[in-house]
Specification:
Blueprint (H helix, E strand, L loop, with lengths): L1 E10 L2 E8 L3 H6 L1 E5 L6 H13 L1 E2 L3 E2 L14 E10 L2 E10 L13 E6 L5 E3 L2 H12 L3 H8 E2 L1 H9 L2 H12 L2 H29 L6 H61 L1 H15 L1 H124 L6 H75 L4 H85 L1 H5 L17 H72 L9 H92 L10 H72 L7 H67 L5 H7 L3 H38 L6 H63 L5 H26 L3 E5 L7 E5 L5 E4 L5 H20 L6 E4 L8 H13 L6 E6 L3 H5 L3 E6 L5 E4 L3 E4 H4 L1
Parallel strand pairs: 3-15, 3-16, 10-14, 14-15
Antiparallel strand pairs: 1-2, 1-6, 2-18, 4-5, 6-7, 7-8, 8-9, 11-12, 12-13, 16-17
Helix pairs in contact: 4-22, 5-6, 5-22, 6-21, 7-20, 7-21, 8-19, 8-20, 9-19, 10-16, 10-17, 11-15, 11-16, 12-14, 12-15, 12-20, 21-22, 22-23
């Protein structure tokens, strides 16, 4: 992987947009380049930009999120980073960006964007944040951690590693190689081993808490249970005999009371039937009247229709005069509209010549107006340009005067500060001296501060040590107390169980609940059986009512059939009369020759009644025929409806009989279920007598169930308390172990701080000597420039730099002003020439404007006399609208006139039709009234008034019918119940089960039931004990198996703990780091051979973190890394860093590397060696960036990227391929 270009904006102090092209020849030729600048100027931000573009995070800040972005420049509303890189699969461009709301500095952070694209085609490969990071890892072959270890060389960390003691090397190497996971694994193994041991101890305690019965106890319980079972059988038989006798007495008393109640109900029913006698007679007459209700309805409907037609005719005759008047008015309005259309057409024809002339003049005026506007615009443009040139000439003249004054002032300043001319050449040496002085002073301050901090930390740590020791003792004591309390609770729980177990008690409770459910089901079946009787009786009554309704419909059907036969006979008669009328009409010509008083040639009669009324007779016969056919159709339809109703009642009767059969089957099924359940619960009495026995057993079972449930609930509560206490004990155990680990950690930290304190004191002495020497060297360099006292070296260098910059700036400014003076003089001459030319053009253009305006005014005067100046289009549109409105009105009036004529015609047709319909309906009504009167007489009604009086509303008639049916049904039911109860009473009395009284039997039953409950309770307790002992034995076997399995699991973790486990993770960490370090040394030796053939690194197998160096130039002498010089240490540490880079990148070739530290402490010879080493890496094709503020690097490395601080906390970048993009920065 190789970085090709980098582009970023607004990151830390590097505000604005910047671009760096690493493909420039300068980078390719040298292979090594330096990123230089003062401390804090923003050098490392360039590396942050690369990490940010690829992975969305940096080594110093971590991931950038929507809630935190510390890398965005202050007072900026957006930032981004973009890198183009080459990998094995191609060239790609990866971009990361984030902005604030509306890109304002004070806005809220928005979601970041991250995408990767093909650099060659620009095609977006992925644009979702999480998926883009995964895509980058796939394309580069490295995640973020591997990338930072592969491309950002940790030479400085390895330099610390080489100089560190054996105990301090492990954490340093862990931080460099990222092997923290091995410490975590070691500590997790230690914790898991302790957890498995605690689980084993808990299981052993649980096994010890299970109590089993001995062989003698089991035999005694079996004997006791057998004796109790025999006693229960005898007592149950005696109790059942007495209970049967008591139920026999109670059954007799119940039946006697039922017979008496039946007699009372019969007397009450007779009284109700006598009171209903008058309503029964009314019901009979209403039912007779209902049989001819259809005929009466036809007559009543015909009367209403005749009355409605008469009213409609009267209304239409009133409308006739108004309709005639509307026709006349519509005709008059139509004629007036025709005259308006002709007038509008003539006006349009007269106005068209004037409109055409006006349009011609308007076109001429528009053309001339455009010409005037164009000439005026040209004149105004010339005038504005003239004024602009005059203004510009004045500005140029003023600026030229200012330039000459400034030039004189700068030349005078240079004469006064001539000594600063040589400052530029000496400033580089002064800065180099400052760069050497500053790190020395920083090391002195850092050492002194470190001593103070370490002493303070030791004091604080002493207090933490005291607290940790007290906490460890208190935690262990609390754990011991809680464990003893838990043991006492488990002993109490075992005593309360009394040899039983919760699982056995729960099984007994389930048995009681099941028995209770079965008894409830039996009670429910008894209740269900009692509900079958009223349902069966109800269906019988419904069947009887439907059969009566069927009889009524049958009578109506016969009557309707008779009416249909009568109507069919009448139809035959009417058809015969119609044929006779046709024959009469065939002799119409002969009838016309008949003369009154003269004999007929056919019959000889002197009177001729058919001569004038034949046509009228024919019409009446046709009407009668149509009416007869209509009546036949209506009565046929009524007969079919009655036939369907009869079929429906038959279906209803069948369905109800089917329902009756189903209820009987359900009643029988319910009885079978009840017998089966009685057998299951052990009730051995007849089903008819078992209901009170079941209810009593139900109460006893519920009582036993509730008592056992309460006991189980108490035991479960205690068991839950034990589990909670076990959790508390486990937590206290964890707390004790945590306190012990903390005590060990605090002790280790105290020992480490004491070592750090000794090292810092030694460093402080060396740093103080180095600072004094550097200060003397710095004073010799600044004295020639008037600096006598050195309070703040950095401020002195800054002041000298400002003086040097100011001299160079003024020198550059003088040259610039001289050039500007020559340019100003040339500009003045050019402006004078342009002013003369524009003045002549303006005078000529003004004359053209005046001539065009005169011609335009003449055309406008002529146009005012045509159409009074009105717009010809508007005038033409007005005339056309007038004509169109007249035509629209004519069309509307034409439609209105036609509609009025059509309405009059329809009205006259309707009046004639209504007259004819009234005559026809009067004839039909007369015939129907005659038929209805005949039916009234047949049914025994004197007249229509008597019929109407006998009618009842349907609702009232149905209520009376229901009342009558109810009385009949109750009579049948009472008689049936009376017979059934007397028969049942006789059967029960014949059984003669006892001669004792009810009270004596009840007392003996209660006494025997109490004795039986005691015996059964003893049997249940014994059975529970035996069952609980069996369950406890099974549980004991399971627990023993679990203990053996847990012992095996514990031994497995104990073995792993012996290998790698430790409380602080040190055991596995040192082992893994030894392997990692050995592999890394192998990679480092390959890199070292490319840089020099003198050294080879050697790993000590007995001391995993010890490292030696073989010096091939000294006959293979083995040297300690602590004896290496500064340059040699740099070479070794760089080789280790490159080895780590190669190891981290695995199979990925990394061709871009960055070294961000390690040069500040090298002397001149060591620095020379280090730079030679870096130059040698170019042969492998790698591009290495060195980040440092050491001045000597600028002399030895020719390619620089310089980061220079500016005012306001900003910095700028200069160097090959570096470009500031104006889009954001400017």
């Amino acid at each position: 992987m190789k970085i090709l270009t980098l582009r970023f904006a607004n990151l830390n102090s590097l505000q604005g947009e910047w671009q760096i092209d690493f493909t420039r020849p300068e980078y390719v030729a040298d292979g090594v380049f330096a990123i230089t600048g003062p401390t804090g100027s923003g050098k490392s931000t360039i590396l942050d930009a690369i990490c940010l573009a690829l992975y969305g995070e940096t080594p110093r800040l971590g991931k950038i999120t929507v809630s935190s972005n510390e890398i965005m420049s202050r007072h900026a509303g957006e930032c981004f980073a973009e890198v183009t890189f080459a990998a094995a699969s191609g060239t790609f461009r990866c971009t990361w960006s984030q902005h604030r709301s509306r890109k304002k500095p004070g806005g809220a952070l928005q979601a970041q964007k991250h995408e990767i694209a093909d650099a060659a085609t620009g095609a977006i490969i992925q644009s979702r944040v999480q998926e883009t990071r995964l895509e980058v890892e796939a394309r580069t072959g490295m995640d973020f951690d591997r990338f930072t270890r592969s491309m950002l060389l940790a030479q400085g960390d390895f330099a610390k590693f080489l100089q560190a003691d054996a105990d301090q090397r492990a954490p340093v190497l862990e931080q460099i190689t990222g092997t923290e996971i091995y410490s975590l694994i070691s500590m997790k193994v230690h914790e898991r081993k302790r957890a498995e041991l605690e689980r084993l101890q808990r299981l052993e305690i649980e096994v010890g808490g299970i109590r089993l019965l001995g062989a003698e106890e089991l035999a005694a319980l079996e004997a006791e249970r057998s004796e109790a079972l025999e006693q229960e059988a005898k007592m149950s038989a005696s109790l059942e005999s007495d209970s049967a006798a008591l139920r026999w007495l109670e059954e007799i008393a119940r039946l006697e009371e039922a017979v008496a109640a039946n007699s009372r109900e019969a007397e009450a029913l007779n009284t109700e039937r006598e009171a209903f006698a008058a309503d029964a007679r009314r019901l009979e007459r209403a039912q007779t009247a209902a049989l001819i209700e259809v005929a009466y309805a036809e007559v009543r409907l015909m009367r209403e229709e005749l009355q409605r037609n008469a009213g409609e005719l009267a209304g239409k005759e009133v409308q006739h005069p108004e309709s005639e008047r509307a026709v006349r008015e519509a005709g008059e309005a139509f004629e007036a509209a025709e005259r308006g259309v002709a007038s509008a057409q003539q006006a349009l024809q007269d106005g068209r010549p004037l409109i055409a002339h006006a349009r011609q003049l308007d076109e001429q005026i528009a053309g001339k107006s455009g010409e005037v506007e164009r000439l005026q615009h040209d004149a105004e443009t010339l005038e504005e340009r003239q004024a602009q040139l005059r203004s510009e000439r004045a500005e140029v003249s003023t600026a030229l005067g200012s330039i000459r004054i400034a030039l004189q002032n700068l030349q005078a300043w240079q004469n006064q500060h001539q000594t600063d001319a040589s400052l530029a050449g000496a400033l580089s040496g002064i800065r180099h001296a400052l760069d050497e002085l500053r790190p020395a002073a920083e090391r002195e301050v850092a050492a002194a501060s470190g001593i103070t901090d370490t002493q303070h930390n030791l004091e604080v740590l002493q207090g933490e040590l005291v607290l940790a020791e007290a906490d460890a003792r208190a935690s262990q004591s609390a754990f011991d107390d809680a464990r003893m309390a838990l043991g006492k609770m488990k002993e109490s729980f075992a005593l309360q169980l009394d040899g039983a177990s919760l699982s056995s008690l729960r099984g007994e409770l389930d048995r009681l609940r099941e028995r209770h459910r079965q008894l409830e089901a039996i009670v429910a079946l008894y209740a269900e059986g009692k509900q079958f009787v009223p349902k069966i009786d109800k269906i019988w009554v419904e069947i009887q009512q439907t059969e009566r309704r069927q009889e009524e419909l049958s009578l109506k059907f016969d009557h309707a059939r008779q009416l249909l036969e009568h109507a069919e006979r009448d139809l035959v008669s009417q058809e015969e009369l119609a044929r006779l009328a046709d024959r009469v009409r065939s002799l119409e010509e002969e009838r016309e020759r008949l003369v009154d008083g003269q004999p007929c040639p056919l019959c000889g009669s002197p009177s001729h009644p058919w001569a004038d009324g034949a046509s009228e007779l024919l019409e009446r016969s046709q009407e009668a025929l149509h009416e007869a056919r209509r009546i036949v159709q209506e009565r046929s339809k009524a007969l079919k409806e009655l036939e369907l109703a009869l079929a429906k009642t038959g279906t209803e009767i069948d369905e109800r009989r089917k329902s009756l059969q189903e209820l009987a089957e359900l009643r029988e099924s319910s009885g079978r279920k009840c017998l089966a359940l009685l057998k299951e619960v052990g009730v051995n009495v007849p089903a008819r007598e078992a209901e009170p026995v079941v209810e009593e057993a139900l109460q006893q079972t519920a009582s036993q169930r509730d008592a056992l449930a309460g006991r189980i609930e108490q035991l479960e509560t205690l068991e839950q308390r034990i589990r909670d206490h076990e959790a508390d004990v486990a937590q206290l155990n964890e707390t004790a172990h945590t306190a012990q680990r903390r005590l060990e950690q605090v002790t280790e930290r105290q020992r480490s701080l004491l070592l750090d304190l000794a090292r810092l004191k030694k460093e402080l002495g060396l740093a103080q000597q180095n600072v004094a020497e550097r200060q003397r060297s710095f004073s010799r360099l600044v004295e020639p420039f008037g600096v006598r006292e050195i309070d703040d070296p950095a401020e002195i260098v800054s002041a000298l730099a400002l003086r040097s910059t100011e001299w160079a700036s003024n020198e550059k400014r003088i040259r610039t002003l001289e050039q500007e003076e020559l340019a100003g003089q040339s500009r003045l001459k050019n402006l004078d020439d342009q002013l003369a030319t524009i003045s002549a053009d303006f005078l000529e253009k003004d004359r053209d404007v005046k001539a065009a305006v005169t011609s335009l005014e003449a055309l406008k005067s002529k146009r005012a006399g045509v159409l009074q100046g009105h717009d010809p289009d508007v005038e033409e549109e007005r005339l056309e609208r007038t004509l169109q409105a007249a035509r629209t009105k004519l069309d509307e009036l034409t439609e209105k006139r036609n509609a009025a004529r059509e309405a009059l015609s329809v009205l006259e047709t309707a009046i004639a039709g209504l007259h004819q319909a009234l005559q026809e309906r009067r004839l039909v009504l007369e015939r129907r009234e005659e038929a209805f009167t005949l039916e009234l007489k047949q049914k025994g009604f004197i007249g229509e008034a008597v019929f109407l009086e006998a009618r009842l509303p349907i609702g009232e008639r149905q209520k009376l019918e229901q009342k009558a049916d109810s009385l009949n049904k109750r009579a049948h039911e009472l008689e049936a119940r009376r017979k059934e109860r007397q028969t049942k009473l006789h059967e029960v009395r014949e059984r003669q089960l006892t001669s004792e009284s009810n009270e004596k039997l009840s007392e003996r039953i209660a006494r025997r039931q109490e004795q039986l409950r005691e015996v059964r309770g003893r049997i249940g307790a014994i059975a529970n004990q035996l069952r609980e002992n069996e369950q406890a034995a099974g549980e004991h076997r399971i627990k023993l198996h679990a203990v053996e399995a847990q012992k095996s699991e514990y031994r497995r973790w104990e073995l792993l703990h012996d290998l790698i486990g430790s409380v602080d993770g040190k055991k596995f960490r040192n082992f893994a780091q030894g392997i990692t370090f050995e592999l890394m040394i192998s990679h480092a030796n390959r890199q070292l051979r490319q840089m020099t053939d003198r050294y080879q690194l050697l790993h000590d197998p007995n001391n995993p973190l010890e490292l030696s160096v073989i010096d091939q130039w000294q006959a293979g002498e083995v040297r300690s890394t602590r004896n290496l010089s500064g340059g040699e240490s740099f070479i070794v540490s760089l080789a280790l860093a490159l080895g780590l880079s190669q190891m981290s990148s695995r199979n990925v070739r990394v061709d871009s590397l960055f070294l961000d530290e390690g040069f500040g402490t090298l002397d001149e010879e060591a620095l020379e060696t280090a730079l030679d080493t870096l130059a040698g890496l170019q042969q492998s094709g790698k591009l290495i960036g060195v980040i440092s503020h050491v001045a000597a690097l600028r002399e030895r490395i020719s390619t620089h990227i310089r980061v220079a601080p500016k005012t306001g906390g900003r910095s700028s970048i200069e160097g090959p391929g570096v470009a500031a993009m104006p889009s954001i920065q400017g």
